[in-house]
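S1.2 Input.
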Amino acid sequence: MHRGGNSKKRYWVGDLSEKGVRKCIESFSAATSPEMPPKIFYDIFFLQKPMEDKIREIHPDCIFYDMYFPWTVDIAEELKISRILFNQSNYTYNSILHNLKVYKPQEKLELNFHRSFLVHGLPDKRVFKLSQLTDDLRKATDDEKTSFDALLDQVRDSEVRSYDIVQDIFYEPEPAYADYY
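S1.3 Output.
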């Protein structure tokens, strides 16, 4: 991953207001209603072009990025550099999500919101109801998906195309899931 010489960290924070980003919701922690997170994602995409331009200009050895910048997979491939994903979720969540996407037990049965089903292949038994899943996992067809669901699909695709993933969790709290994932 290193081309030689001294490794340097470079951070870039642009003026968000000049790109039309609403100052009152620059982070998810500032979101006070269910309507605000989609606006934050919309604002994030205002930053794509200036960030791509800056990445091309400095041509780093690696991009370490947040999961909600899935477009960085394309710029990293263009520059032939590694991308490392920073994922704020834990191993248990990611393992369950992976198996729901791969095995799709929620789609195989005639389920209603109150009927339970087993998520197969995990280190321990995990049973869910359809009502416990997020909207994007409950929707059977692409016609039912929203633009937010499409973003989540891009995020998951970029994870697969990453060089590696850094999880925001220690090994000790969930060793079986860390080994599994």
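S1.4 Remarks. The helical segments are 36-46, 48-58, 72-79, 91-103, 105-108, 135-138, 147-160, 175-180.
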